Amino acid sequence: MTPGTPRTAPEDPRAARTRAKLRQALLEECAEHPLEETGVAALVRRAGVGRATFYVHYADLEALAVDACADVVREAVEALHAWRGRPDPVSAPPALRAFFTGLAPHAGLYRALLTPGGGGPLGLVLHRDLRARSLAERTLAGAPDAPLVASAVAATFAGVLADWLHGLLEGTPDTVADEVWQLLVALHRSR
């Protein structure tokens, strides 16, 4: 270990298993009922943990829901950066198409956490992570106006995704993937 490097304690495997059970229980519960109709009692019963245990790990259902949906944020970030070389300006990379196609099973939960325009608790996480990745890549490449374009990319993607999930934009997953990809390519070329 390098001097000055902070040590990070390994995560307690029991805590990780408990959080995984709670995330899975939430996804299963939200497949049957909207998030706003889901209660902690039903959730802990499904997960096989106590109510107090739930509150040891999460402040409330929204915190658990954002944690359970964190994978969708990671998948979005990776899908947007899954190409190498010169991007096709018209057709989205296969990973981005797969991302949009894969949203259907938990679309109701994502809508509850991602408000139209790209806000909401999941929208904030999505924007933060997309902006950070875009900023890092643009800065590494020496691209001009890296912070401005990174913010625009994150806001555009989060907004389009949210509006499509809420039915404000029409189109198949492939169509929306291509359309948002074209917008993002245009943003990158504008500066």
Description:
With 191 residues, the chain is mainly α. Helix content is 67%, strand content 0%. The chain has helices at residues 13-32, 40-47, 51-57, 61-68, 70-80, 94-101, 107-113, 120-140, 146-165, 173-190.
Largest sheet: none
Share of helix, binned: 55-70%
Rounded to the nearest angstrom, the distance between the terminal CA atoms is 41 Å
Q: Could you tell me the strand content as a percent range? A: under 5%
Low-confidence stretches: 1-8
Shape designation: globular
Order of helices and strands: HHHHHHHHHH
Q: Report the count of strand segments.
A: 0
The tally of helices reads: 10
Give me the Rg, rounded: 19 Å
Please state the structural category.
Answer: mainly alpha
Rounded mean pLDDT score: 89
Describe what is shown at a glance:
The protein has 191 residues and is mainly alpha-helical. It is built from 10 helices and no strands. The N terminus is likely disordered.
Helix and strand arrangement:
Layout: H1 13-32, H2 40-47, H3 51-57, H4 61-68, H5 70-80, H6 94-101, H7 107-113, H8 120-140, H9 146-165, H10 173-190
